[in-house]
Amino acid sequence: MNNDVDPVQPETRALFAPLTIRGTTLQHRAGVSPMCMYAAADGMVDDFHLAHLGRFALGGAGLVIVEATAIDPRGRISHHDLGLWSDAQIDGMRRIAGFLSTHGAVPGIQLAHAGRRASVREPWFAGAPLDESDAAAGRAPWPVIGPSAIPAGPGWQVPSALDAHEIAESIGQWVAAAERAVAAGFRLIELHGAHGYLLHSFLSPVSNTRSDGYGGDAERRMHYPLEVIRAVRSALPESVILSYRVSAVDGVSEGGLTLDDVAEFARHAVAAGVDIIDTSSGGISVDRSTDTRVRRGFSFHADFSRQLKARTGAIVACVGLIVDPEQASRLIEAGDADIVLLGREMLDNPNWVHHARRSHAADEFDHWDPRFGSALGPRLRTLRRLAETGETPLTRFAQHAGQ
Ligand SMILES: Cc1cc2nc3c(=O)[nH]c(=O)nc-3n(C[C@H](O)[C@H](O)[C@H](O)COP(=O)(O)O)c2cc1C
After folding, report:
1. How far is the CA of 193 from the centre of ligand 1 (A)?
2. How far does residue 33's CA lie from ligand 1's centre (Å)?
3. What CA–CA distance (Å, rounded) separates 110 from 128?
4. Pocket lining: 110 vs ligand 1, CB cutoff 6 Å
5. Which pLDDT score, from 0 to 100, does residue 359 have?
6. Would you say the CB of residue 73 lies under 6 angstroms from ligand 1?
7. In terms of domains, do 314 and 290 share one?
8. What is the pLDDT of residues 260-285, one digit of tens each?
9. Contact in structure between 136 and 94 (CB atoms under 8 Å)
10. What pTM value is reported for the model?
11. What distance in angstroms lies between residue 64's CA and the mean position of ligand 1's atoms?
12. pLDDT at 374
């Protein structure tokens, strides 16, 4: 790689500015958002995960966050989620963290408990709750838990409400999973506090109607997530970054969390030890009649991340239809976010970061891994030459037709 060449142009300079948090440097601000792949058996990493996540590091991502990884088998969304509820799951994760680090990405992992939204089918089966028909195929439903006995929507399981002892036990599971993630080599741990899963369900009045120390008013609804944050932070080495994904709004027609509520929580979360607030939205209800989700435009969480950044002073990540390098860079420059996370765009184009650098650059591939760049540079020059001569991929057939 030729490090003398800086292909970054003014339009994307803010995107390619490094960011150091707790002594760990992200080479630039574009990361891969956590995305469940439903490819694990018994929560174990296999070659699929290594290949899938590895290509993002090879593609130049500065941060790769492994998908929602269950801290407890009951906290899996589906039978095929990854897990870190057991020491046996560390070795596979170590391969991923090691590969990502070797190839220049900060290795991150999202720890999760799906709470009352657990025990469902994969999205390509509409994400519906598992039922007895799935049991016949070896994918039996399992009992789900939550703050209160309120299901996520019509036809969903009624969760059993955690008692004080079970809450303490579950905080221990968050800590144990975080320690395993550190043992595996991850340098950023994200707690999944969004999308209606366990942490979010304690925070939201839609799903938490408790009257003990963990519910009853806004402050008490924060207790469980804040206890988890404090316990995890105190178990992490100083150098490990702690991120927390929030749903900035519940997006339900009545009674859900507003941005003001979530900003207030985020302030407490930062005081409790969170370094990054990762901004998403929605998920508390799967009831289509009440779910009024945030409109999907470009950068659709940027108004929220901007507010959370202004109101917490924290480092803030933004996700949601970020597809263009200049768009990403301007989000950073404008103070809408410090880090941009890309999800589906990265699935479509794992080399997005390399292309983002090149799109405004000097036509070369010097910033790519030379295994790829040394082949792609000459190929690009050949393509340019052919374009000048007017030759296209279909020219050969036109010639044949004329014979
Ligand atoms: C296949 C898929 C799986 C996802 N899994 C997770 C997940 O594990 N954790 C999470 O917080 N968000 C998850 N999401 C949401 C993404 O992280 C991201 O916030 C969302 O796709 C919007 O960003 P995008 O427009 O760049 O895709 C998932 C999204 C997709 C498409």
Report:
1. 13
2. 6
3. 23
4. yes
5. 61
6. no
7. yes
8. 999 999 999 999 999 999 999 999 99
9. no
10. 0.94
11. 13
12. 86
Residue type at position 20? T
Say if CB 341 and CB 245 are below 8 A apart: no
Kindly give the parts of the chain with pLDDT less than 50: 1-5
Nearest ligand 1 atom, CA 321: 25
Q: What is the distance in A from the centroid of ligand 1 to the CA of 147?
A: 24
Q: Is 193 in the pocket of ligand 1 (CB under 6 A)?
A: no
CA of 343 to the centre of ligand 1 (A): 6
The total number of structural domains that make up the chain: 2
Looking at the fold, whether 44 and 107 belong to one and the same domain comes out as yes
354-359-362 Cα angle (round to 5): 95
Q: Which of 197, 214, 224, 244 is catalytic?
A: 197
pLDDT of residue 361: 56
197 given a catalytic annotation? yes
CB 294 within 8 A of CB 263: no
Ligand 1 contact, 35 CB (< 6 A): yes
Q: Whose CA is nearest to atom 31 of ligand 1?
A: 344
The pLDDT value recorded for residue 382 is 92
> Which residues lie across from 291 on neighbouring strands?
252
Tell me what pLDDT residue 2 has.
44
SS3 272: coil
Query: Residues 309, 324: one domain?
Result: yes
Phi, psi (deg, nearest 5) at residue 61: -60, 145
CATH at residue 51:
3.20.20.70
| Separation between Cα atoms, residue 316 and residue 307, nearest integer Å | 10
* CB of 67 shorter than 6 A to ligand 1: yes
pLDDT at 12: 87
Question: Do 277 and 401 fall within a single domain?
Answer: no
- Which pLDDT value is given to residue 108? 98
Q: Which atom of ligand 1 is found nearest the CA of 300?
A: 25
**Domain carrying residue 40:** 10-368
